[in-house]
Structure formats: structure tokens, C-alpha cells
Amino acid sequence: MTDTRHVKDGWFSEICPMWPGMALSLEIEKILFDEKSAFQHIQVFETRHHGTMLALDGIIQLTQFDEFSYQEMMAHIPLFAHPKPETVLVIGGGDGGILREVGRHACVGAVDFCEIDDMVISVSKQFLPDLACGFDDPRVTVFIGDGAAFVKEKTGAYDVIIVDSSDPIGPGEVLFKKPFYESLKTALRPGGIIATQGESLFLHKDCVANLAKITRDLFTRQAYACIMVPTYPGGNIGICLGSLGPELTRPARKIDAGLQEQLKYYSPEIHKAAFALPFFARKLLENL
Ligand code: SPD
User: Fold this and answer.
1) Is the CB of 91 under 6 A from ligand 1?
2) Is 117 within 8 Å of 88 (Cβ atoms)?
3) How far, in Å, is the centroid of ligand 1 from the Cα of 61?
4) Greatest CA span in the chain, whole angstroms?
């Protein structure tokens, strides 16, 4: 089953046409899981230095080494930008990491979660319990199915929607298109916020610009935040945000000391700093 393009001589290399001519390699000790689901090739590795790693179709989704930076920022930026998030929808992210972070907000009363591939959930429960603990929260209701179809049926239902997609090749492709964003907007309550996986400013300029244009056309406010994630391509990834009211670039609520202590990456300071973009990116996003 193991794809020899990705695993060779005890190393996993993340080779993908979305980042041509480069590949992050991690030394692996053991292949813990290696199967094809109805949607994708799911692999879990025990790496030598980066803990357990989940890969889908040969692309790194997370390592235990740095997963916190992505999950915390994807969840806490939109949730703290909202003055009182009570209802939340999470699309994708069958590992449960975003759910774990959403669950830290006591004001959230209900979380709908929609994932297309239930094998990702079961594999994560088996091999990534530190993330899949997100599913233990009684406020979470799990729906297995196509996130785009799920959200299309919703109107005025959610304060915050988080889309934890894989890259725009394979099952995640539809999640980068305008009709999906139109559905997200319709599914929001007044003053709602969306946050979607926004790829890399360095490697995917066209994709970032396209997402920024879509959100600018549809939402009252739009912004793009940058996150450091050493094991993602180029060491960074972005969040594309749209808001029907609240300012996105600073928290609307105070974080209590107990919650701050549980986190490793997110803080009120990094919330604001994440929106300070390199000059080339500012120009790219200002001139759409
Ligand atoms: N290039 C990989 C982007 C992966 C984004 N989703 C990660 C899922 C973690 N919950």
C-alpha cells in the first residue's frame, strides 16, 4: 500500500505538484496505519523526532510536534474575534484538533461537525487521542458527509464556521470555490464569522488572492492571518477570514488566565500580529 514516492529509506517526503521542486522529509520509525478509504489514502507514521504524523494522499495534515499552532489559531482567532459565539460549525478536520480547541470556549453551547471521511475520525481516535479528545465533548454533534452539501441546507444557524480543509486537490477542492463561500455566508447568524484554511502566501499566491477576493466580495470585513507551522510546506499557512460585522484583527473578548495557560501558540498579542503581513502579500491582497 505504501506509496514509494513518499516513503523511501526510512524517510517520508511530502512530494506534491502544489509545491513543485521542494519536499519536507521526516525520518520515520514505524508505519502505524496505511489504508485507502473511499476518499483518500490515509497514513499514520511514528516519526523519529516529530511524534505521530497523519498524512492524507501523501500530504502532511499534522504532526504532534507542531499541530497546536494550526489548531489553536484556526479556532481561537474567529472565536475570540466574535463577542459571544454560541453556535459553531466545523467542517473537515477529522482528527478532532479544531474541536478540542473550540471546546475550550465555555460560551459555546453547540458544535456541529461535518467530515466527509469517517475513516479519518476512527484512525485519529486510535492513533491521535490528544487531538481526537475533541470528539468527547458532549456539545459536539458529528455528521458524516460532504461539508459543502451540509452547509448548503443551513440558514442563519451559526455564529462561527471553521473550515479545516485539506489542500484544493482531491476531496477538498470544492471548499475553495465561491458557491461554497456563498453557502457559508447564508449559514451564519447576523454578525457571524467564517475562518477557512488559507494555504501559503509564499507558495499559493493565486489561491490566497482568489480566497481573499471571494471573501471581500461577500463579507462586510475580510482579513488574512499567517501562522507558523514548521511541518507545513514553506513552514507557514494562512487563515482566510470573513465577517458579517465584528472586527477580525483583534480579540473582542478577554482571555482568562486559566485558558491562556492551556495554550501554546494563541495569545491576544499573536492574534493581532498574525494579520501583519509581508509587504508583497499586502500589495497582493490590496490590489485584487
Ligand atoms: N498542506 C496541508 C494543509 C492541511 C490543513 N488541514 C490540517 C488538518 C488538521 N486538523
Assistant:
1) no
2) no
3) 4
4) 54
Q: Residue of the nearest CA to atom 3 in ligand 1?
A: 166
Which atom of ligand 1 is closest in space to residue 98's alpha carbon?
10
Catalytic-labelled residue, pool 57, 95, 164, 167: 164
Alpha helices in 13-90, H assignment, sequence order: 67-81
Res 121 pLDDT > 70: yes
In 3D space, the residue among 54, 173, 62 whose CA is nearest the CA of residue 122 turns out to be 54
**Whether residue 176 has pLDDT greater than 60:** yes
| Contact 166 CB / ligand 1 (< 6 Å) | yes
Using a 6 Å cutoff on CB, does residue 115 contact ligand 1? no
Name the residue type at position 283.
K
Q: Does 93 contact ligand 1 (Cβ within 6 A)?
A: yes
pLDDT of residue 181: 98
Pocket of ligand 1 contains residue 124 by CB under 6 Å: no
30: buried, middle or exposed (CB in 10 Å: 19+, 13-18, 0-12)?
Answer: exposed
Is 206 one of the annotated active-site residues of the chain? Answer: no
- Can you tell me the distance from the alpha carbon of 198 to that of 66, in angstroms, rounded to the nearest whole number? 18
Q: Which grid coordinates belong to 56?
A: 492524507
Q: What is the pLDDT of residues 241-286, one digit of tens each?
A: 999 999 999 999 999 999 999 999 999 999 999 999 999 999 999 8
Which of 24, 60, 62 to mutate for ligand 1's pocket (most ligand atoms within 8 Å of CB)?
62
Report the predicted TM-score, pTM, of the whole model to 2 decimal places.
0.97
Residue 4: the pLDDT is 59
Grid cell for residue 235:
513552514
**pLDDT tens readout for residues 181-229:** 999 999 999 999 999 999 999 999 999 999 999 999 999 999 999 999 9
